[in-house]
Amino acid sequence: MNVAVLASGSGTNLQSLIDSAARGELGPARLAVVGVNVPDCRALDRARAAGLPTLVIDHRAFASRDEFDRALLAALAAHAVDLVVLAGFMRLLGAEFLARYRGRVINIHPALLPAFPGVHGQRQAFDYGVKISGCTVHFVDGGVDSGAVIAQAAVPVLDGDDDSMLAARILAEEHRLLPAVVRALAEGRVSTEGRRVRVQGASPTHEALRSV
Ligand code: GRF
Prior knowledge:
Blueprint: E1 2-7, H1 12-22, E2 30-36, H2 42-49, E3 54-56, H3 65-77, E4 83-86, H4 95-100, E5 105-109, H5 121-128, E6 132-139, E7 149-156, H6 163-186, E8 190-193, E9 196-199, H7 204-210
5-O-phosphono-beta-D-ribofuranosylamine is lined by residues 7, 9-13, 43, 87-88, 108-110, 135, 171, 174.
């Protein structure tokens, strides 16, 4: 399974996928290409350092989201991509892109969806005062963080936390959960019935719960 990872920022989730692949923990998933929309982002450095093929498509060069999406689709076409992983990719993908990769685009979100979708999920949860938060890997549909949930990992919110401490605790779980989901997808262990997603065998959600 050829995986494209799209990122915009620091790329620590990309790094966790790179490291998992190096340890042979992604099963039959292979990181085929990394695409970024921010030309000088740290994710791009990480991809290059790992020797992965890269695509740099600066969204500012396009007049509309559709045009950006089309450029991205055209660039990905050369890499026979089976799965698109959004790992801190700060762009919404339009209908044409999602139709091309129907059911094959996943995202990681730093909150327990459906709570706190959108940007700064960690800070939203912290400000709300929840006692448990975490992260969610979900299929991407046309909405904002609204697609079917594949796996979740929970973390406690501690009394002495500030929002960055909570974000760091969540991020550590993201780095475990995302590679586990990519592996499960690559191994063909994920099936979907409407909004309900089943992961056969080792469940990333249950493994994450054991480590709380
Ligand atoms: C992560 O918190 C992820 O959940 C969110 O964006 C952040 C990306 O971090 N979608 P990084 O670029 O992987 O370090």
